[in-house]
Every structure is written in C-alpha cells, then in structure tokens.
Design brief:
With 215 residues, the chain is an alpha/beta fold. The chain has 6 helices and 9 strands. The radius of gyration is 17 Å and the shape is globular. It starts with a strand and ends in a 6-residue tail after the last strand. The protein binds glycinamide ribonucleotide. Glycinamide ribonucleotide (GAR) binds next to helix 1 and strand 5.
C-alpha cells in the first residue's frame, strides 16, 4: 500500500530529502500530503516547496502550545494521513495532540532521534554522546508517546565512535545512518511489515519487524 504521510520539521530537512529520494526511486511507496514547519527560516520549507509538496509555515512564537497545536491540527485535518512523520521537529507534542492520531497499539506518529534511546534524549544528542565518550552511538526510529524522545522502538542501529573522531566526523557518520534508517522504517510501515507483540512480563506491546535488513 502507499503510505500517506505528513511531515513536521524545524530545520535543515536532510531526513525529509532522504525520504523524498526513496519515494522518487520508487523504493518507498508513500504519498507526501503536506509539510509543516514551526520555524519561518527553516531551510526545509524551501526544500519542500521545491519538491512540489503542500507546505505550511505555522510559527509557534507568541502562541501557547495549545494554540499552536490547534493551528497545526487545522492544517493537517485537510488531509488524509496514515502517519505523521517528525523529521527534526524540535517541539514537544502534547498528549491531547497525539490523541488525534490514535492507532491500535500506538499513536500514528513516528520520530527519528540521533541516539540509542533511551540514552541521550533532547536536542543535542550527537554532542551529548560524543562528549560523554561513548564507544558506540546510534540512531532510533520510534513511535511517539507522551514523553520527549520516547515510545516503542521500531528500528534502532548502532554506529561506532572512533577515538580519533572529530565531532563533525562523528555526526556525519550518524546522519548517514539516519538517512538510511528513516526511509527503511517508512517502507516497513507501508508494506505492513510491522506487528505488535504483547509481552506478558512487562505488560506492554512492542513493535516487531518482519524481514528487516540492517542499513
Ligand atoms: C536529525 O539529526 C534528527 O535526528 C534530529 O534533528 C536532526 C534534524 O536534521 N532530531 C532530534 O534531535 C529529535 N529530538 P534534518 O533537519 O537535516 O533532518
């Protein structure tokens, strides 16, 4: 099936671009319904417009979180969306907002985070992992829940931090992994290759992936 997605993004847009590239080649069957950014200067706006995507700038400045989210929802309501895809969206999302995307075992909202969650949540994950001196870092694609950078993990992969790494080299290695992992996660969703299994010990549902080839 073709997955109907909408992006929320705040910055450069390299993950949006990586996903668009996979759609372009036909490797990922997805229809981008729209992109919304909360940052008027974000390069992702230009990128999205150039790609012919319906693009909205809804700045959060001077608005309460509730008011801003109401405006975002109003824009999204014009579209039929299977998944809301957070691609460098640097805003906390409220539980009230998430309820609009209730799925069977999870919210139909996914996020990419540049660390091995639950390590290093927040807005400077690469810097935090690098300065901590981890030997292995990673990238996580997860279903979003009520907490920041939290929720059932869909895909997660590691990459090494070499002793001689500069921060820039470390980040570049991680970003290359992001650009492989996020389209791959969407592809699994579009192919219905994600199932939820109940674990009676933790009493929670966990996503399980069928036929996953690592990046
Ligand atoms: C990416 O590294 C993404 O993982 C991160 O923001 C960057 C956005 O880059 N997201 C988070 O830190 C979420 N907490 P991009 O705009 O080039 O895709």
């Amino acid at each position: 099936m073709s997955l109907k997605i909408a992006f929320l993004a705040s910055g450069r847009g390299s993950n949006v671009q990586a996903i668009l590239n996979e759609i372009e080649t036909g490797a990922l069957k997805a229809d981008v319904q729209c992109l919304i950014s909360n940052i008027p200067e974000a390069p992702v706006l230009q990128l999205s417009q150039s790609a012919g995507i319906k693009t909205f700038c809804i700045p959060h400045r001077n608005l309460t979180r509730e008011h801003h989210e109401a405006q975002v929802l109003e824009a999204l309501n014009a579209f039929d969306i299977d998944y809301l895809v957070l691609a460098g969206y640097m805003r906390l999302i409220t539980p009230e907002f998430l309820e609009h995307f209730q799925g069977e075992h999870h919210y139909r909202v996914i996020n990419i985070h540049p660390s091995l969650l639950p390590a290093f949540p927040g807005t400077h994950a690469y810097e935090d992992a690098y300065h901590y001196g981890v030997k292995y870092a990673g990238v996580t694609v997860h279903f979003v829940d009520e907490a920041m950078d939290n929720g059932p993990i869909l895909l997660q992969e590691t990459f090494p931090r070499y002793d001689e790494d500069t921060l820039e080299a470390f980040k570049a290695r991680g970003l290359a992994l992001e650009h492989c992992l996020y389209p791959k996660a969407l592809k699994l969703l579009s192919e219905n290759a994600v199932q939820f299994r109940y674990n009676p010990i933790s009493k929670r549902y966990y996503p399980e992936v069928i036929h996953h080839v690592p990046c």
